């Protein structure tokens, strides 16, 4: 099955968000944290996500405020440039989110097959 045929296959799509009155964290924050963990650079992480640097900081700052815990350790720039490290709490949040996301997707697939199995080839 080629990519085009695969994309036309019926399947559930689940986007997991954790909210108060507003979304606190979801796939965007988690992906940003994963890019930050990989590169150590907010600038590079934002570039990979095709978002502005200021938006990246807004997402991080809002999540930290709502969660009441720091997600990043910030090292100011200078001659060697700044960098960011994910805190232990941030890493735990990422792990829990990815585990819950996998579980929710598995449940969604099972429910989809139960209700719409005739659409799956």
Automatic annotation (TrEMBL):
- Top-level taxon of origin: Bacteria
Q: Which InterPro entries match?
A: LysR_HTH_N, Molybdate_resp_trans_reg, WH-like_DNA-bd_sf, WH_DNA-bd_sf
Q: Where is the HTH lysR-type domain?
A: 30-90
Q: Which Pfam families match?
A: HTH_1 (PF00126)
Q: Could you identify this protein by its name?
A: HTH lysR-type domain-containing protein
> Which species is this UniProt entry from?
Claveliimonas bilis
